[in-house]
């Protein structure tokens, strides 16, 4: 089997072959193939820009791999600002010895995921580091998107807003944990890794007045909702029974002592909309996932915290996760 060598990052013949036969073959477009030092882009109106680095372990997991994750994660950050993803940069830091077949599988999955949003990789970089200096592959991406619905912000949650979740939570974190511990589950558990622009675009097309959006990645919905409380100075009251959690995720959490609200997601978002728009928003979300739900509301109350209401009438704070629950999940 062919493996990545240091010469693949040396700027010579091997590197040229790697870029042309692998990256350009799968990711090529009219901008990228110009091979200039910088991409020249057409941007009209307000744009959103984001950057992210991906160091997930393992590189391949049920439902995706680091390449799919890099594209979806960057595109989703743009979508959460109401921005249509347009352009991405991509840098690969490859460890000497990585199988070329694995690298090609990762790049192919990136090309496939790009078709979901229509975004294009327009510039990039490749570095190869000696064996032991990286864990297989690290990917850095930057994205630019045209804002289609302005005004979406973590600071715009208003008292009376309904809080919605787009699907069941915790799948990515539970999937990664299961893979690392070599668990053989009786039922398949897959990461929710996915591009979210199609559902956000559908909400915008239906004129849903979105106040706030956030994909619940590291720290899960606990982190997102607590950030909203702080940024918007509201209290969020959640119905614990309404929050969608699969039995598979609950089982993994019980086995390892985790809280599903703290687990990472890579294709799940939280939305705040006015109460009178909640049913319309839910209808759009359910067209993409049957697990979407209205899970709570925002209130003008103190302290500015998340309150979790149990089916038995008890209440507790849903605090920010403490410590590093599960490193290297994205």
From TrEMBL:
Domain PurM-like N-terminal residue range list: 36-146
Domain of life, per lineage: Bacteria
InterPro entries in the record: HypE (IPR011854), PurM-like_C_dom (IPR010918), PurM-like_C_sf (IPR036676), PurM-like_N (IPR016188), PurM-like_N_sf (IPR036921)
Classification via SUPFAM superfamilies: PurM C-terminal domain-like, PurM N-terminal domain-like
Pfam family, one: AIRS
Biological processes, Gene Ontology terms: protein maturation
Residue span(s) of domain PurM-like C-terminal: 159-306
Family designation: Belongs to the HypE family.
UniProt cross-references to NCBIfam families, sorted A to Z: hypE
Protein name: Hydrogenase metallocenter (NiFe) assembly protein HypE
């Amino acid at each position: 089997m062919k493996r990545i060598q240091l010469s693949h990052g040396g700027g010579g013949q091997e590197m040229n072959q790697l870029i042309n036969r692998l990256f350009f073959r799968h990711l090529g477009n009219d901008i990228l193939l110009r091979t200039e030092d910088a991409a020249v882009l057409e941007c009209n109106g307000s744009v959103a820009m984001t950057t992210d680095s991906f160091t997930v372990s393992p590189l391949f997991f049920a439902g995706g791999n680091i390449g799919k994750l890099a594209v979806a994660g960057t595109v989703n950050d743009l979508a959460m600002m109401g921005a249509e993803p347009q352009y991405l940069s991509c840098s690969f830091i490859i460890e000497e010895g990585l199988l070329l077949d694995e690298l090609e599988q990762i790049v192919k999955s990136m090309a496939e995921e790009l078709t979901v949003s229509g975004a294009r990789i327009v510039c990039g970089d490749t570095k190869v580091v000696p064996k032991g200096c990286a864990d297989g592959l690290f990917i850095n991406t930057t994205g630019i998107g045209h804002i289609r619905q302005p005004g979406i912000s973590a600071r715009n949650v208003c008292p009376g807003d309904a809080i919605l979740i787009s699907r069941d939570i915790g799948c990515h974190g539970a999937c990664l944990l299961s893979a690392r511990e070599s668990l053989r589950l009786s039922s398949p558990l897959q990461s929710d890794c996915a591009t979210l622009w199609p559902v956000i675009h559908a909400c915008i097309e239906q004129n849903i007045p979105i106040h706030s959006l956030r994909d619940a990645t590291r720290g899960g919905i606990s982190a997102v909702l607590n950030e909203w409380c702080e940024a918007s100075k509201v209290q969020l009251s959640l119905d614990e029974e309404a929050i969608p959690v699969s039995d598979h995720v609950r089982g993994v959490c019980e086995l390892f002592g985790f809280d599903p609200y703290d687990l990472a997601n890579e294709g799940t978002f939280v939305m705040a909309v006015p109460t009178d728009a909640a049913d319309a928003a839910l209808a759009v979300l359910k067209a993409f996932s049957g697990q979407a739900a209205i899970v709570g509301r925002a209130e003008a109350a103190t302290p500015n915290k998340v309150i979790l209401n149990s089916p038995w009438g008890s209440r507790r704070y849903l605090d920010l996760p403490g410590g590093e629950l599960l490193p290297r999940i994205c």
